[in-house]
Every structure is written in C-alpha cells, then in structure tokens.
Amino acid sequence: MIEPSLALYGEPFDQVETQIEDLLVATGVRYCLLVDRKGFVLSHKEALWAPRPPALDSVATLVASNAAATAALANMLGERTFSEQIHQGEQGAIYVESVGDVALLTLIFDSSVPLGRVKLHAKKAILALNEVMKNLKEAPPIKFDADFGSSATALLDDLLG
Amino acid sequence: MSTINFAAREINCKIVYYGPGMSGKTTNLKQVFSKVPSHLRGEMVSLATEDERTLFFDFLPLDLGSVQGFKTRFHLYTVPGQVFYNASRKLILRGVDGIVFVADSAPNRLRANAESMRNLRENLLEHGIDVKEVPMILQINKRDLEGALSTEMIRAVIDPKHELQWHEAVADQGRGVFETLKTVSRLVLERLAKGQ
C-alpha cells in the first residue's frame, strides 16, 4: 500500500460536512471540496446559487497532482512543504490548503469574493478539520459476498465488452 | 489500496499505464475514451506539450457500476514516458492499485522497454513497495510494425520469470486495448475482494 486510504465515515464524516457547509456560507465561495492526496473527492458542497460544478473527478485529480508537484518543489528548495496554493484568474480563483498530510481543502470562488476572507475562514476550518482527521479510526474491512467476483466480472463485460 | 468512501458508498481504484516514451500509453486511453459510452466515463484530461507528448499525465475516470452496493470507479492515468520526466512518474504512482506496462514492439526499443521496467521498480521501491505487490499486466503494443520484436524477446527483458499476464495490442486500431484493461481491472477487484 503506497498511500493510506482515509476512513471518513460516520460521525467524522458528518463533522467534515458541517465544517464545509459552514465554510461555504461564511466565505461565499461557489464550491468547497475535501480531496485526499490520491486525488479522490472525500466530500463536497456547493452553494445553492452556483452553476453546475465542473467535473469534480478531474478537479480533485489536478488539485492533488498539483499539491504533490508543489510539495516536491518545496523539498527541492529545502522546505518540508508549501501548505497553500492560490490560482487567480480574471473571473474566479481557486484556493487549496493542506489538511495535515492526508487531505486538501479546496475552495473555488468568483473574483468578487475577497481572498482574505476565504483564507481567514479556511484556516479556522482547517484547525477543526485537523482535529477530525486526527481522530479517524481504521476503516472496517468490507465483507464482500461470495458472488462479488461474478458481479464485478459481469459489470466489466458490460463496460469493456 | 483502493480508496473506499463509506459515506458515499464508493470504491475508487487507480490504474496507471507505464512504459517507455511513445509506446502507446496515451493512445490506449484515447481508445477507451472514444469507445466507452459517455455516461460511463468522465472527461479525459491530458497535460501534454505542444507536440502532444505527455508532460505530466493523462487522466480518464470510468464508472463500472455498483458492486454489492458500492459504486465502483476506475481512474486511469498514464505517465510521461520520456526519461527526463521521472519526478512526474513518481508522483503519479502515488496510491496506485494496478499497473498496465505498455511495451513497444519496435525493433530499436528493446533497451527502452527494459529501462522503463527498471525505472518502475525503482520508483515503486521509493514509495516502499515491491513491484510484485501491485497487480500488473504487460501489454505488448504495436504488433503490426514491420520487423516487430518477438513477444518472447520482449517478455524475456520485462518479465523473465513469466509471472505477468500479457496481451498483444495495436492500440491505435483499438486491438488489445479493452482486453488489457479488463484483465488488470479484474486483478484489482480480486485483490479488493480479498481485503488486501
């Protein structure tokens, strides 16, 4: 196993959802995601007024890859990591900050939203999210039935011929 | 290990296409993208140079469907094959669940195949993992080339103990692409079923 998988479920998952929802309201951002370091979406919320989000799989993959590349760059410059990344365009921006070594908080927002406000609330949320992450337990093993193999094979046949 | 999101009841598996430059890794993904119905796949993301050589990676999410109540997805990645992009290759191997090694049958690419396999072993070891711990399939591509290397010769340098399952392919015609993906997907799911 190269990278630990996050066992985010039950109460910790609810706590993460609450933090993300609060962050969305407090900052006025469009989308707020928690992404693991492998590039998978752990949780996401969007503002009610926001348009349909971009492909979240792709966003998460690029955010995680970008963070990994940034960390590699930091190491080359003698830093342990660069904990935050900001990308600002004409219409909008994206702000990404590390949640410990396990996840990345990602906020996507319009240019009308002040970056200072986003950073301020994000840093508060990260303190809380870090506490949640510290208390995560091992994922319970999934018990698949005996017919797991045949169901999976049938789906593979459907998908790939 | 696959990422299992209990809250969303999702299983996400990461499959990486590895191999020397120009062996056909991106072509494999493009074929999958063009043939899988759009409701079962996401967008294909390619981070490439101006001459379409992979710079960082290509990415394609695929929905398998629901297996015993868990929505199961495969995330397909390629790595850049050119030797000087090793930092990118190391990053893409992060969290890998299955590997397709795409070997090039061109007569002058035997050494490149061998060096890419050695590079894969080294990069996995840097993540603290032995190459034998990851489900892997060998795809011997470009079988239509005139003077193509024999499959025995390629297997002798990539997999001398004949431990890997392998498929012949002509990826730009779609031959062998789905067979390869199906075999590696099955291995990943079998491992998942065993709780590894």
Overview in brief:
The complex is a heterodimer of chains A (about 160) and B (about 200). Chain A has about 160 residues and is an alpha+beta fold. In chain A, about 45% of the residues lie in helices and about 20% in strands.
Name the features.
heterodimer, A: 161 residues, Beta-Lactamase, globular, B: 196 residues, alpha/beta, Rossmann fold, eight-stranded mixed beta sheet, 5 helices
What's the arrangement of secondary structure elements?
The complex is a heterodimer of chains A (161) and B (196).
Chain A: H1 10-27, E1 31-36, E2 41-46, H2 56-76, E3 84-88, E4 92-99, E5 103-110, H3 115-134, H4 148-160
Antiparallel strand pairs in A: 1-2, 1-5, 3-4, 4-5
Helix pairs in contact in A: 1-3
Chain B: E1 3-5, E2 10-18, H1 25-35, E3 45-48, E4 54-67, E5 70-78, H2 86-92, E6 98-104, H3 110-126, E7 136-141, H4 151-158, E8 165-168, H5 177-193
Parallel strand pairs in B: 2-5, 2-6, 6-7, 7-8
Antiparallel strand pairs in B: 1-2, 3-4, 4-5
Helix pairs in contact in B: 3-4
Percent in helix of chain B: 25-40%
Largest sheet composition of chain B = 8 strands, mixed
Mean pLDDT of chain B: 92
Give the tally of structural domains of chain B.
Answer: 1
Largest interface: A-B, 44 and 50 residues
**Rg of chain A (CA only):** 18 Å
CATH architecture of chain A: 2-Layer Sandwich
What is the CATH top level name of chain A? Alpha Beta
Number of helices of chain A: 4
Using the coordinates shown, work out and report the CATH topology of chain B: Rossmann fold
What share of residues are in beta strands of chain B? 25-35%
Low-confidence stretches of chain B: none
Q: Please state the overall shape of chain A, judged from the principal axes of the Cα atoms.
A: globular
Order of helices and strands of chain A: HEEHEEEHH
Give an account of the 3D structure.
The complex is a heterodimer of chains A (161) and B (196). Chain A has 161 residues and is an alpha+beta fold. Chain A contains four helices and five strands, in the order H-E-E-H-E-E-E-H-H. The mean pLDDT of chain A is 88. Chain A is globular, with a radius of gyration of 18 Å. Chain A has helices at residues 10-27, 56-76, 115-134, 148-160; strands spanning 31-36, 41-46, 84-88, 92-99, 103-110. In chain A, strands 2-1-5-4-3 form a five-stranded antiparallel beta sheet, sandwiched between helices. Chain B has five helices and eight strands; from the N terminus they run E-E-H-E-E-E-H-E-H-E-H-E-H. In chain B, strands 1, 2, 3, 4, 5, 6, 7 and 8 form an eight-stranded mixed beta sheet that branches. Chain B is globular and about 50 Å long. The relative contact order of chain B is 0.19. The model of chain B has no long low-confidence stretch (mean pLDDT 92). The chains are: A alpha+beta (161), B alpha/beta (196). Chains A and B meet through helix 2 and helix 4 of A and strand 1, strand 4, strand 5, helix 2 and helix 5 of B. Chain A: InterPro entries: LAMTOR2-like, Roadblock/LAMTOR2_dom. Chain A: Pfam families: Robl_LC7 (PF03259).
